[in-house]
Amino acid sequence: MDGRPIGVFDSGLGGLTVVRALLDLLPDEHLVYFGDTGRFPYGPKPREEVLKYAFEITELLMGHDVKLIVVGCNSAAAAALTELRARYEVPLTGVIEPGLRAAAAATRTGRVGVIGTVGTIASGAYQRAAALWPGIELTCAACPGFVEFVEAGDVDSDQVFVLAERLLAPVRAAGVDTLVLGCTHYPLLARTIGDVMGRDVVLVSSGEETAFEVAAVLDAVGARRRPPGGSGVAPGDPGVSPGEADARRTFLTSGDPATFRTLGSHFLGPEVDAVEAWRWS
Predict the structure, then answer these.
(1) How far apart are CA 104 and CA 199, in angstroms?
(2) Cα-Cα-Cα-Cα dihedral of 25, 51, 10, 261, to 10°?
(3) Which one, 98, 104, 234, 250, has the greatest CB density within 10 A?
(4) Helix, coil or strand: residue 104
C-alpha cells in the first residue's frame, strides 16, 4: 500500500473533470490538484513555455511527495509528457492516449474527430498517437475560445453556441461518429457541443479512461491506498495513516483562490471546499 497522494495538474479548471473521475473510481486516494489559472491558457503559448510550466508544476507536486502524476492538460501533455517521463521516476499519465483508446472502442465507422486547443492540435500529438489504432480515420480541429468561456463560467450562452457551430464545422463535415473532447475543459461544454454535433455522435471525455489507467498503474505496483478499517487492513499496514480515514483533497492555484473555489465547486462539487494560493517566486 502507498498512502502518498496522486498529483494532477492543468492550466486551470479543466483538469477537475479528470479529478471527478478519479474521485469516483478511487475515493480512498489522497489527491493534490494544481490549477495554473494565473498563467492560463496554455493552448496559444509556444511549446517551450508550456514545457517550462510543466516542469515547474511537476517539481511543486513532487514537493507534496506524490506517488503518481496525471498531466490533466492536453496542451501540457502534448508539449511535455515525454520529457517529464525521461526526468522523473514517478509514474506520469497523460490524457491523450486514454481518450483515443475510448474513441477507438466507441466508433462504428472509424471516423473519429478530435477537438483541442491550438497548441494541442498543432503539436500533432493526437495524430501520432492515433497510429496505435490503424482503423481510425482522424479529423482534428482547433477550438480557440472554448477554454476562456469555461474559465469564465460560461458554458451554455448563445455566444458559446455560435462559436461552437463555427469551430466544429470541420469535424461535422468529415462525418465523424465519435468526437474526442481533446481538452479537459471541453466536457464542461458537452451539452453545447452535443447540440451542435447531433445525437448520433458519441462524445468522448478522457477523464474516465484516464482514471482507469491510473487505477491500473497503482494496482500493478500494489500502491492503492486503503483507509483504516478497510477489508483486510491491520494497524501499521503501509499506506494506512492513523486518524486519516478520510481521503485528503488539496487544491492549489496560481490565480485567485476565491474564483477557483466558486467555479470549481460548480464544476466538481463540494470537494472544493478550500483552495490555497500559490505564487511563483
Answers:
(1) 18
(2) 140
(3) 98
(4) helix
Residue type for position 151: E
Q: What pLDDT sits at residue 229?
A: 59
Residue tagged active-site, from 183, 204, 214, 268 = 183
Q: Please, which pLDDT band fits residue 106 given cuts at 50, 70 and 90? A: very high
User: Is 143 assigned a catalytic role?
Assistant: no
Cβ pair 52, 153 in contact under 8 A: no
Domain presence at residue 1: no
Question: With 90 as the cut, is the pLDDT of residue 243 above it?
Answer: no
Let me know if 183 is a catalytic residue.
yes
Q: Would you say residue 69 lies in a domain?
A: yes
pLDDT above 80: residue 236? no
> What's the grid cell of residue 261?
473555489
Q: Which helix (H) or strand (E) holds 128?
A: helix 125-129
21, 57, 73, 188: which one is catalytic?
73
Regarding whether 258 and 173 lie in a shared domain, the answer is no
